[in-house]
Amino acid sequence: MNDQKLISVIVPIYNVERYLEKCVNSILVQTYSNLEIILVDDGSPDNCPQLCDQLAKKDSRIVVVHKKNGGLSSARNAGIDIARGEYIGFVDSDDWCEPDMFENLAKALDESGCSLAVCGVEHNDENGKLLRSDCLDPGSLTIPQEQALSYFFDGKS
């Protein structure tokens, strides 16, 4: 029996035809499989709308929303509006995820009782060479809500 909570992964998409397939494939191969993948085409002028539709035909977990361009927040909100998951995750369409990212985030939420989990990022050049890592030390850190908000809004974290 699958006792994994559904995670709705929202991917806002605009003019990222070059990166989109790698991004979506990295979500499809997650070790945490109970995912709803919401691709929000934010009126992209390139081939992203067609790519989204093609990707949705390959996996039933993919849902596509086509909308008029409204910007990143508007696209994320459009995804949130239809999300069915108990948890919501965001992935930028020019990024990709490590295969166990959502498993680790869900585990952190379950073990800590927290309502928000974040992970670090690595910055790579076009050839995949690591330029900079903004990753947390291995393990987890549990902090009060007020401190978490200050981390997000202080411009340093």
Q: Report the strand count.
A: 6
Largest sheet: 4 strands, parallel
What low-confidence regions span 5 or more consecutive residues with pLDDT below 50?
Answer: none
Lateral arrangement of strands in the main beta sheet: 3-2-1-4
What shape does the CA trace take? globular
Structural class: alpha/beta
Report the span from N to C terminus.
39 Å
Question: Radius of gyration, rounded?
Answer: 16 Å
Strand content: 15-25%
- Count of helices? 5
- Fraction in helix: 25-40%
Mean of residue pLDDT values: 88
Note the run of SSEs as H and E: EHEHEHEHEEH
Oligomeric nature of the chains = single chain
Structure notes:
This protein has 157 residues and is α/β, with parallel strands linked by helices. Helix content is 33%, strand content 20%. The protein has five helices and six strands. It has helices at 20-28, 48-58, 72-82, 101-112, 145-153; strands at residues 7-13, 35-41, 62-66, 87-90, 121-124, 130-134. The strands form two sheets. The chain has a four-stranded parallel β-sheet with strand order 3-2-1-4, sandwiched between helices. A two-stranded antiparallel sheet has the order 5-6. A hairpin with a 5-residue loop joins β5 and β6 (130-134). The N and C termini lie far apart (39 Å). The mean pLDDT is 88.
